[in-house]
Amino acid sequence: MAVKHRLSVYLDAEMMARLEQLATKERAAKSAIAEAAIVSFLTSDDADRWEAAMTRRLDRLTRSVDRMERDLEFSVEALALYIRAWLTATPPLPDSSQAAAQAKGRERYESFIETLGRRLANGQRLSKELSEELPPPVGKVAKRVP
Fold first, then answer.
1. pTM exceeding 0.70
2. Burial of residue 78, with CB atoms counted within 10 A of its CB: 0-12 exposed, 13-18 middle, 19 or more buried
């Protein structure tokens, strides 16, 4: 057990009342609470470094969430425009063609799902393909991906 040294501290009445209230609530000695507070104060550099690291990490996460939100908004808007165009341009089928059209639709959907699964498994992304195909904005240098 470490040797402890005595320290006399003078507190104003309000601070002493708060210390006694906390000691009662936590069922801890006032000196143990005061020692913990002093240790915390003396090691504030560690706390400051930890807070700075957490702030940087939270900033990075915030930027990432902002990018995801932007990408999701883009995807939803593109899908909505596609659905609107498809619904506008597709004429209704006569009743005699409904069964064949539904069978062909199921076949195309299954093919779509297989292709989607394969592309996701291989890490292919349409957004990456599009960014490689588009010319760079005026005044910007194209970044080549090997």
1. no
2. exposed
